[in-house]
Amino acid sequence: MATERTLSIIKPDAVAKNVIGDIYSRFEKAGLQIVGAKMLHLSKEQAEGFYAEHAERGFFADLVSFMTSGPVMVQVLEGEGAIAKNRELMGATNPKEAAPGTIRADFASSIDANAAHGSDAPESAAREISYFFKEEELCPRG
Ligand code: GDP
Ligand code: MG
């Protein structure tokens, strides 16, 4: 499997629960390296742009409102099969369907407040990483 990068966001509910370190530890134990990170309080425009693919969905306004409700932790994860690995660690979008021991099973309280974001494909990973980071802000260890 190839080395990949993916964009991860610890959403406002998980930041408020003070579990950034717990979630980082899961990434590291799974063999993923954090090669860039920043804490941000997203503006409405930033959240709308990030989730533009969902603009026509009924839940879009709720999603944007939730994502701007408090600070988020945004990171680039690098490693073998990073995109799928991160999605596996996160669990299903709806925490009621998330496998036991996943981030969403452990920390999410609803389909809105579902603790984490992870890119779903190489194309979205590239777009989402460049949405938040310049290449020179990333620090791969090789
Ligand atoms: P993800 O890739 O697993 O995060 O899921 P999606 O890309 O399908 O959706 C993006 C985010 O929108 C999800 O993480 C949820 O926070 C939110 N979302 C998705 N589906 C629903 C829904 O049916 N209702 C509500 N309220 N929020 C949703
Ligand atoms: Mg998605």
From TrEMBL:
Its cofactor is Mg(2+). The keyword Methyltransferase does not apply. ATP binds at K11, F59, R87, T93, R104, N114. The active site is at H117. It is found in: Cytoplasm. Transmembrane segments: none annotated. Its EC number is 2.7.4.6. One of its GO terms (biological process) is CTP biosynthetic process. SMART domains: NDK. GO terms for cellular component: cytoplasm. The keyword Chloroplast does not apply. Residues 3-140 form the Nucleoside diphosphate kinase-like domain. It holds the Pfam family NDK. NCBIfam families: PRK00668.1. Belongs to the NDK family. Homotetramer. Major role in the synthesis of nucleoside triphosphates other than ATP. The ATP gamma phosphate is transferred to the NDP beta phosphate via a ping-pong mechanism, using a phosphorylated active-site intermediate. This is Nucleoside diphosphate kinase. It comes from Salinicola socius. The gene is ndk.
